[in-house]
Fold this protein.
Amino acid sequence: MTAQEPPKIEFPCEYPIKVLGRSSEDFRSLIVTVFERHAPGFDQETIVVKGSSKGTFTSLTITITATGPEQLRALHQDLMATGQVQMVI
């Protein structure tokens, strides 16, 4: 049995990214700033914000028009480099 290739993503495409981090006053603005650097002009009206049941964590689901794997890698690196992001899905 051969390993199945993951499906190839056709770029550019709409690409939802979920960012999870500790809740703080500036978490959303920090994340939006990083996204603006890598996907300028994305629609901030479509951001979905969810807090954890105890309010410790916040997740933001942000949809961008992804241009390629390099953009997504650089975005992931910058998000993790903030020190406030626990996970990027």
